[in-house]
UniProtKB/TrEMBL annotation:
InterPro entries reported in the protein's UniProt record: RmlC-like, RmlC-like_jellyroll, RmlC_Cupin_sf
Record keywords, A-Z: Isomerase
Organism: Paenibacillus profundus
Protein name as it appears in the record: dTDP-4-dehydrorhamnose 3,5-epimerase
Iron recorded as keyword: no
Pathway: Carbohydrate biosynthesis; dTDP-L-rhamnose biosynthesis
PANTHER family: DTDP-6-DEOXY-D-GLUCOSE-3,5 EPIMERASE, THYMIDINE DIPHOSPHO-4-KETO-RHAMNOSE 3,5-EPIMERASE
Amino acid sequence: MKVTHTKLKEVYIIEPDVFQDDRGFFMESYHALKLEPYGIIHSFVQDNHSLSVQTGTLRGLHYQLAPQAQAKLVRVVAGAIYDVAVDIRPGSATFGQWVGVELSASNKRQLLIPHGFAHGFCTLAPDTEVLYKVDAYYAPDLDRGITWNDPVINIAWPIQSPIMSEKDQKHPLLCAAELPNVNGVFHAPTDAGSEGERL
């Protein structure tokens, strides 16, 4: 299992070892003991599975507030996505910066998104299915979001006119969002960085 740091050091790309033959393949999509040496220690409690029928579907940017903040381990089992993590931790040296990674059924990459990061993805192929583990249960009252095209974050999405839910179209800008903090809720400053990295 290969684990790679991104520019946002708490966000990891995980590439399982894949054993292929004429029957197909086998891989360990998750192995807690192999991830533990990298400081990736989570007790995942819920698996989520989404299907996006159309190319250009965008979901995000999503996160939950404490005490139900979620770390996520994201992978694709059909199709492909451009997966994005944004640091929304007030006081972080990389606040407002993002990382984008292509995950697909063929490359079998996974993205580990820790607490304090917003998450979103857009589909690059039709009938894309995404699976992700989370370490806290969904809590509607603590569910929050940031608009996908916030000009301060300035994510270089590979699409211009995404297909989105009504809910995702109404998320606030980063400067107006309720953000995670060890003491609850914090309103973001307006001097967020806009640096990103495509991987």
